[in-house]
Design a protein that fits this description.
Mean pLDDT: 84
Largest sheet: 9 strands, mixed
CATH architecture of the largest domain: Sandwich
CATH topology of the largest domain: Immunoglobulin-like
Structural class: alpha+beta
Distance between the termini: 52 Å
Number of strands: 38
Oligomer: single chain
Strand content: 35-45%
CATH class of the largest domain: Mainly Beta
Shape: globular
Number of helices: 12
Number of domains: 4
């Protein structure tokens, strides 16, 4: 089976604006809509160059009057991957471990009754679900802390982060004691602006850092967190992040101890030359599209027609049982032809069967006589299975490939499935085998998603993108092969290495049918950068996304099982959940086994008091040798993000280093990197 990975889920989220996730909910009875009451919410976001690590903490209380089991649900977006889940109940912290078992989607409720619609709407299509072993006593509380990693969507220098904090579907207008939100950004590119919608927040902005904070008290949770920041458009190219782990820290495979992520963006200023297009829009007008879907499709089609570029050629194909075409062949985009196209779209009416093969064949044949220096792009959307013309998946794929070969051309086919009745395998394979991507939409998403997507592919800059490294020491790079690069869009590449060095990244492809090459110098770190501890998880996330697509296209059960085993191994070793393949399970009490007050190294004896802590923690350090000069403590969360720093001049063989004012930290695990006389000590601490 042909394997192309140009529809990686990563690319989908870079191309389409989508919300992320929301506050967790603790379900007692999903059919009757009974939940624990949320008392407080604490959301902390740390972003490095568009890579976000989000820590979401909520405190819940049991107001049901009865001891009850509970089911934790978090409306995680399909592109976000959970990396840590813990909870605090009855005076102890508990840690969820990763299991290779597929997540159970069961919701507690009354047998035979439907789950409350408000809950289903709130959880979305890909919720994280988890059942602690502990039940909760009446009038007692439980704290859940979930951490996940996300590649933020980007377009033309604008980066967006969205966290729906509106909790009224679950908790009506009940007051929440406190809602805290903080957003900390570090960017190598200059930050020109940062803002948050509909929230009175404190914003601190410098050239390369931004901080946004907000606190609300005694108010309903009804305002979403929507942050947007603008990056300079004159500092484009490649930004690299890398770290090299010691053998003792993480060993999951033999691909090397080095992890690197590269953020790649072509020029996106107004003068950037782009590749002209031969563009075909294929609209399903079968009977099942009647009503809202066909009206959204027509509005999306009009938007596309209004935003084509002069110099493009275009046509519109619409189909049900029969296939129709606006023009008999590809036609130059002019004001007159634009007006004809808009009028043609207005008269489309839904009826009949679904002739997918006929529509694609008609469209592809029209590329036979077009300018070969232009990019051949097809956007195709349908809401059903093939019921007219050729109907079997292998035969449709064969017909498409035969038509492409006869036309002696190449196409980039982007497929969109609408609703629950589409043939996902067919649409995915059509995109995979023709250089595009596939996406699957809800009935009400068609207009918004397709118009947003079109803006990203409207201006291709580099086609047939390939990469190489010199020296060739970076391996296991995802995605591979690369997608086409478009004006104003980014690509995030992640790879592995075992030889720290300076290398050259070469990107090559075609523009206007001529070969184009770009070269960028890359430095690969030779030591462990703790502040970049998220990089192994980013690499694992992108690897899992690739294998998830392979799993969906597996042609046999044995092939699917072998791919699942790879995903399980990546997920468990790297600590990255993929809810379609792996799950969280109750790992028990961690307070006693993970957090000890003292540790001894070859040179130092360190005692941390108290550990766990609430507001401050003191490190009592003894050494046989004199400790003089400055001693420092860098406090990091469990993904390597800096949360506090303390420094003190010391002298003697016994010293005390105090970390105070830590009460604003979210509950959870932290690491203290203690530096004394060029020696480094790392100790794990726990905030409760």
């Amino acid at each position: 089976m042909k394997r192309f990975f140009q529809i990686l889920l990563i690319l989908q989220c870079l191309l389409l604006w989508q919300p992320l996730s929301g506050n967790g909910v603790v379900i007692i009875n999903g059919t009757q809509g009974i939940y624990l009451k949320m008392l407080s919410s604490d959301v902390r976001v740390q972003v490095q160059n568009q890579i976000a690590v989000v820590t979401s903490t909520q405190v819940f209380v049991n107001t049901t009057g009865e001891k009850t089991p509970m089911r934790y649900a978090f409306p995680l977006h399909s592109n976000a991957n959970a990396i840590d889940l813990r909870w605090y109940i009855k005076g102890k912290w508990h840690l969820a471990t990763i299991s290779k078992s597929t997540q159970s989607d069961s919701i507690p409720g009354e047998p035979g009754e439907q789950i409350a619609q408000n809950l289903l709407t709130y959880m979305g299509d890909s919720p994280l679900l988890f059942s602690p072993l502990d039940s909760i006593e009446p009038d007692s509380s439980v704290t859940f802390v979930l951490k996940y990693v996300e590649l933020l969507p980007y377009s033309f220098g604008v980066v967006k982060f969205a966290y729906p904090n509106d909790y009224r579907l679950i908790q009506d207008d009940q007051f929440v004691d406190q809602q805290h939100f903080s957003f900390e950004l570090e960017s190598e590119r200059t930050i020109e602006n940062a803002e948050i919608a509909e929230l009175n927040a404190n914003i601190l902005l410098t050239a390369h850092e931004a901080t946004i904070t907000s606190d609300l008290y005694e108010q309903p949770a009804m305002i979403d967190y929507e942050v947007q920041y603008q990056l300079s458009s004159t500092e484009l190219g490649v930004y690299s992040l890398s770290t090299f782990l010691p053998d003792s820290l993480l060993y999951c495979d033999e691909l090397g101890n080095g992890y690197v992520s590269l953020i790649v963006e072509p020029e996106s200023n107004a003068n950037t030359e782009v590749i002209e297009k031969n563009f075909s829009l294929i609209i399903d007008r079968s009977g099942s599209m009647a009503g809202v879907k066909v009206e959204e499709a027509k509005r999306a089609a009009k938007f596309i027609v209004e935003h084509l570029n002069f110099g493009d050629q275009f046509n519109i194909i619409d189909f049900s049982t029969a296939v129709k075409s606006l023009f008999p062949e590809m036609t130059p985009y002019t004001l007159g032809h634009k007006a004809e196209a808009l009028a043609y779209i207005d008269q489309i009416v839904a009826s009949g069967s679904t002739n997918i093969s006929g529509a694609l064949t008609t469209s592809i044949q029209q590329f036979l006589t077009v300018d070969t220096n232009k990019a051949n792009i097809i956007i195709f959307f349908t809401d059903g299975m093939a019921t007219a013309g050729i109907t079997s998946t292998p035969d449709i794929l064969g017909q498409v490939q035969a038509t492409v070969q006869t036309a002696e051309t190449e196409i980039f086919l982007f497929t969109f499935g609408i609703g629950s009745d589409v043939d996902k395998k067919l649409l995915t394979l059509l995109a995979l085998e023709n250089g595009g991507l596939a996406d699957f939409l809800e009935n009400e998403e068609l207009e918004e998603k397709i118009t947003g997507f079109f803006l990203t592919i409207n201006n291709p800059v580099l086609l047939h993108t390939q990469f190489s490294f010199s020296p060739d020491i970076i391996t296991a790079v995802y995605p591979d092969p690369l997608p086409n690069l478009y004006k104003g869009q980014q690509l995030i590449l992640s790879g592995r290495y075992d030889q720290p060095s300076d290398v050259t990244l070469t990107l090559s492809g075609k523009a206007f049918n001529l070969p184009v090459t770009y070269e960028f110098p890359i430095h690969l770190a030779d030591s462990n950068d703790i502040e970049k501890s998220f990089l192994p998880k980013i690499w694992a996330k992108q690897a899992i996304d690739k294998y998830a697509i392979e799993f969906n296209l597996a042609e046999s059960e044995s092939e699917a099982d072998s791919i699942q085993a790879i995903i399980d191994s990546l997920s468990i070793c790297y600590g990255v959940i993929s809810t379609k393949f792996t799950s969280f399970e109750d790992g028990g009490d961690v307070t006693a086994v993970e957090f000890e007050e003292s540790m001894t190294t070859e040179k130092f004896n360190v005692v941390a008091v108290p550990n766990p802590f609430q507001k401050q923690i003191a490190f009592h350090i003894a050494s046989a040798s004199e400790m003089t000069g400055n001693a420092s403590i860098l406090v990091l969360d469990n993904t390597g993000n800096k949360v506090a720093f303390f420094e003190k001049a010391v002298s003697g063989t016994s010293i005390v280093l105090l970390c105070n004012e830590l009460d604003t930290l979210a509950p959870g695990v932290y690491y203290c990197v203690i530096t004394i006389n060029s020696n480094t000590i790392i100790q794990m601490i726990l905030k409760v």
